Each structure stands twice: as C-alpha cells, then as structure tokens.
Amino acid sequence: MPVSTENPHPRLSDVTASFEKIYPPSWAASWDAVGLACGDPDQPVRKILFAVDPVEAVVDEALLWGADLIITHHPLMLRGVHSVAADTPKGRIVHRLIRSGTALYTAHTNADTADPGVSDALARAVGLTGPLRPLDPDPTDPEGRRGIGRIGTLDQPLILHDFADQVARGLPATAGGVRAAGDPDRLITTVAVSGGSGDSLLGAARAAGVDAYVTSDLRHHPASEFVEEPGAPALVDTAHFASEWPWLTDGSMHLADALAREAGPGGANVEMRVSTTVTDAWSQTFHHG
C-alpha cells in the first residue's frame, strides 16, 4: 500500500484490506454481517474512529472529529432490513454517514475468534496474565489458538469479592455495573472470560475447571441453575458494551502497525481514536430504599 505524494493518505480499500488480514471476514460466523457497510472504496482515509456500537452518539462523535471511517465491533445491519429510509433508525445513520462521506466497517465474530481478539483484550483488562488459551477453540484452526473466549490465571489469587471489584475497575463504568454470583470469599486463581453474550459457554467454563467465568448478558435461570451445581465456577456478569470495549485499543493498534508496514518509510499518515462514548443499552439504574 504505497502512499503517493499526491494523495498522502491511504484509500479506504487499502485500509480495509489491511484490517482484513488481521481479522479475516472468513472467520466470522455464518449468521454474522461483517465488512464494509457503507463508504466509497476509493475515498482517502485520514481519521479512523473505533467504537463498539454504530449508534447516533458514535456518529455524532465521528462527525465532530471529522472521521473518514468508523470501525465498530457490532454490525449496523445484523438482521435483514428492507429499507434504509431516513425516517428509520438505521436508515438515518446510513444517510448521515453518506452525506458526511464517512465510511462504516464492522469486525464482529471474526474479531471475537481472532488470536489475539476481543476476549484477549478483556482477559488483560480484568487482570489475567501469562499465556491465554481459547475457552471454545475454533475447530478449523490447526494451531488451536483461535476461538471464542479465553482462559488464563491471576498473578495473585483473589477472593471473589475482590476479583469482581478488580473487573469493575478494569472496564468502563456503566449504569449496570458488575454483578457476581457465588461465595464472595471463594479464592479465584483461574478465570475464563468471553466478551459479549456468553451464557452459551457456561458448560465450557464448567468443563474447563476454572474458578470464575467473566462474561455479559447472563440470564436469570441459566445463571441460577449454574451456580447451584457443585464445583461450578463463580460468575461475574458485566455490561455487554464494557466487556468488548477493551478490544478497540487492540484493534486500532494492530491496524496502525499494519498500515505503517504497508506504507513504508513515513508511515500511513492516518490518525486513530478510540471512542469513550458509553453505548451500553442501559443508561440508568434505580434502587429502592
């Protein structure tokens, strides 16, 4: 991706090609919608904003900063749509992006399963050290390094109460905060994590023999039944947005490195920013008494 003197910024197609070498779309689940949602492949890219969700507040931030490209973890059109009319929520975003010349690109389950990926960033954010291994390995990876979730250890064991507090301090603050289930004095050494909704991996966490499982969107009945099982890991439930936010920094750094290598001397002349806009669906919490 040589950067010409006439146009000192890479084209959108060059940026997405570099990103897809890190997070190939072929790694995405069959039901997922990843890749370029809107944007002219020939447009120059000077500023890239990384965010979890393609929502109005993120578009506001991108347009105010003058971003040419937004890279989000969650897709704008995960489920099929039949209209992008500007009087619909998704259509309004598409129209704003097109009018401003801002492209939108998504890396979702392909970033989840990557090595390193979303759960690697989560694992480091909550204090796991040493080598990490997949919680649910990708059977198509002969090296066994890719997959959903990660398992690692704490440098120093912590009781569940203190570990949950460490998780809360390592992630962005949200209205829902962090919840824990299990004996608050239980000693935690080995931990499984999975960014985003993770109750489908409760069985994998139990089979792995870890002391705690950190994920998001745990439902009442599966969680309640799980913690009643003898020897089951403790549970730490975080906001969905918060558990995936740490990956944004990793993704931006990997892309910056890739663009710099492609551009050669002088670098790619692209500025990157990680959004700090909290886009968790829940914005308020109320407690009686």
From TrEMBL:
It comes from the Bacteria. The keyword Repeat does not apply. SUPFAM superfamilies: NIF3 (NGG1p interacting factor 3)-like. Keywords: Metal-binding. InterPro entries: DUF34/NIF3, DUF34/NIF3_sf. Homohexamer. Belongs to the GTP cyclohydrolase I type 2/NIF3 family. This is GTP cyclohydrolase 1 type 2 homolog. It comes from Nocardiopsis coralli. The lineage of its organism: Bacteria, Bacillati, Actinomycetota, Actinomycetes, Streptosporangiales.
